[in-house]
Design a protein that fits this description.
single chain
């Protein structure tokens, strides 16, 4: 409290005392107990009111004891059960939960991890993938500012993601790996990696690469074979020894029929092998009849061109050529879709030819676009020409009808640089992305499509789309989501199928270790996304003839169903609307493969190195008592006494209001009682 405030309080006391004395004592010849009481009550009331006006502040200090956290992260992947470590893990968890000393010293937080980190509800050992690196990233967000030693209960076998031995360096907590498994090295022959393209073209041969690895001390010989159904289409005799323990096999296979072809690659196991699951790898290739050729036409260089080319060519069915407008005219028949990047007068002859042939196209405009030229040659839309530019961000239109779009968190993407001014369409159009400026949504399209006279066209009003691809990678650690978005747009523009009220999105085949997700969109008769419809999918196993019906769940801007629990087989399906006679059918295959069953033992070396790098200690699962005793005796993990200082103004002290009410009320009551009122 400052000296100035203290002076005001003293002054308030003097004023209150003077006022009370003047009212009840100064005019009386003798002091009575009653007048003294009235005087005191009036002094109390006035002084309290004046204190509220002065409103002094007081410092309040609170002391609290904060215990360190003990984070227990449990591997919930199927490899734990495959290595027969599930019972030991559950016993270890029970031991931690029942240890009163541990509970007194730590705040216990339990998580499971596989593909994602989750609070521990139950341990099922059913996750098909393990991403330890992602678990550390998510834990770091939760425990960044605390003392939180972490027990990592795992076999250390990660199936995808960044190397956790290095990515864990950002996690500033001591890590105590609890190793599930043993260090025994078994004789093993396995297919370490298999590389093959997802697509191949009819009447061609497609390349395949297999990496074979042998763990053992004696020289052996085995046969590597690839079968399509019951027919062996490739075979090679392979020799291994202790020193020559890996082979890279490169070969080609014929693509003889259109559709999905299933293959089975096997390295024949030796007699003493313990794990024979990793000797076989199923794979599939979709054989297509032709490749879609796409031309990106531009009169100048720009990073957008390379980004679009990379995005489109991630689908191996498509090839992209970047061509000058005057060169393309003589090659136009070679391409199924034309992308016109910031057209100007140099595009005049090319666009005339496209109009004559009524060809589909994708136009991208920007500051270097000649808008007067576009206004002159286009009958479908026109630009206000202001000579100014603006940065526009994107907002997804969930009611877009022609094809299914996932929300890529477009709001987080950098703005596109575009021409300032309104765009007017002469006919009907569908908006994929709307413009926003500084968070304010505009009723103007940033990316739109329309169909006229059997021709499809898309227009993107802005350059710098290469930054979107980069931001998508920063958000998701993969380019796949953005590339799929561009791929769907290209597929729509390269196709001549009519608009449908029910759209479905699925793959022709799924690897056994991936999620099997089928998505759908349903629109009403005005092609507005309908959230009231009930969609069901009927799935039929073509081998066992088993029929199963699943509901599709509304999630964000689409309906979807997760069929990951279906066994490996070939399936047909039908998605049907309950309230209307609308349905769509398709086929897919699930390949048999469980990456979690490819491991024979724990990755002890990497887990021990992880402990060393983080100032922790590694233990085997049977060392429960040693683990808990070391944690209890570690002086780094002690409760911390924290003090919090809070400045409280007097006006927040509710009792002062009660004192004012009490003193005034009591004064009135006594005066009334004594007939002075």
């Amino acid at each position: 409290m400052s000296s100035e405030t203290l002076l005001y309080i003293i002054l308030a006391g003097i004023v209150a005392l003077a006022l009370a004395t003047f009212q009840y004592i100064s005019k009386k010849k003798s002091m009575t107990k009653l007048s003294m009481l009235f005087s005191f009550l009036r002094f109390l009331s006035v002084f309290a009111v004046l204190l509220l006006i002065v409103n002094p502040s007081f410092d309040q200090t609170k002391l609290s004891i904060e215990k360190p956290n003990l984070v227990v992260a449990v591997d919930n992947s199927s490899s734990i059960k495959h290595l027969k470590q599930d019972s030991a893990l559950i016993d270890f968890i029970d031991e931690i939960k029942s240890n009163s000393d541990i509970q007194n010293k730590f705040n216990l937080d339990f998580f499971t991890f596989g593909e994602n980190l989750k609070p521990l509800d139950s341990i099922t050992f059913t996750d098909k993938q393990t991403n330890i690196s992602k678990a550390f990233t998510q834990l770091n967000e939760i425990y960044k500012q605390t003392t939180s030693p972490t027990l990592l209960i795992t076999d250390g076998n990660q199936t995808y993601g960044n190397d956790y031995q290095f990515s864990s360096n950002n996690y500033k907590q001591p890590i105590y790996p609890i190793i599930l498994g043993d260090t025994i090295t078994y004789t093993d022959l396995r297919i370490q990696q298999f590389n093959v393209n997802k697509y191949a073209f009819l009447k061609n041969r497609f390349p395949v690469e297999a990496i074979l690895v042998y763990n053992g001390n004696t020289a052996i010989q085995s046969n590597f074979i690839v079968k399509n159904g019951n027919t062996t289409i490739y075979s090679e005799l392979i020799n291994f020894s202790k020193n020559d323990n890996s082979k890279v096999i490169n070969f080609t296979l014929p693509a003889n029929r259109v559709g999905v072809s299933n293959y089975k690659a096997t390295i024949i196991p030796i007699e003493s092998e313990k794990n024979k699951v990793n000797n076989t790898k199923n794979f599939a290739v979709e054989i297509i009849n032709q490749k879609t050729k796409i031309a990106i036409v531009s009169s100048f260089s720009h990073p957008d061109l390379g980004a679009l080319k990379k995005s489109i060519e991630t689908n191996e069915q498509r090839t992209v050529n970047i061509i000058k407008p005057n060169i393309l005219i003589n090659q136009l028949e070679d391409f199924q879709l034309i992308i016109l990047y910031q057209p100007n007068n140099k595009f005049s002859t090319l666009i005339d030819k496209l109009n004559t042939q009524n060809r589909n196209r994708f136009i991208i405009t920007g500051p270097k676009t000649d808008l007067r030229f576009l206004n002159r040659i286009s009958n479908d839309y026109s630009f206000d020409i202001t000579g100014q530019t603006e940065n526009y961000q994107a907002n997804l239109n969930i009611n877009y009808a022609p094809f299914l779009i996932d929300n890529l968190d477009f709001e987080s993407f950098p703005p596109l640089l575009s021409n300032y001014g309104e765009v007017r369409f002469s006919g009907t159009y569908e908006t994929i992305l709307n413009k926003t400026v500084k968070g304010i949504a505009l009723e103007e399209p940033l990316l739109a499509t329309f169909e006229i006279n059997g021709r499809r066209e898309a227009v993107l009003f802005g350059e710098q789309i290469w930054q979107w691809r980069a931001q998508s990678y920063l958000n998701e650690k993969t380019f796949d989501n953005f590339d799929n978005f561009i791929g769907k747009l290209i597929q729509y523009l390269a196709s001549t199928k009519k608009k449908s009220r029910l759209n479905i999105d699925y793959e022709s085949f799924y690897n056994g270790n991936n999620n099997v997700i089928i998505k759908a969109e349903f629109f009403d008769k005005n092609y507005v996304f309908d959230t009231r419809e009930t969609l069901n999918i009927t799935v039929i196993d073509k081998v066992s003839k088993t029929k199963t019906v699943f509901p599709l769940i509304l999630k964000n801007n689409n309906y979807q169903v997760d069929l990951s629990n279906l066994p490996a087989s070939e399936y047909s399906f039908t998605v049907r609307a309950s309230n209307e006679n609308i349905s769509k059918s398709g086929n897919f295959r699930i390949l048999e493969y469980d990456v979690e069953q490819q491991f024979l033992n724990a990755d002890v070396t990497k887990l021990q190195q992880l402990a060393t790098n983080s100032s922790g200690t590694s233990y085997f699962i049977n060392e429960t008592n040693k683990t808990l005793n070391d944690l209890l005796n570690d002086n780094r993990f002690v409760p911390i006494q924290k003090s919090s200082k809070n400045t409280i103004p007097l006006i927040d002290w509710k009792y002062l209001l009660a004192i004012i009410a009490f003193s005034l009320g009591l004064e009135w009551f006594i005066r009334k009682y004594n007939g002075l009122i």
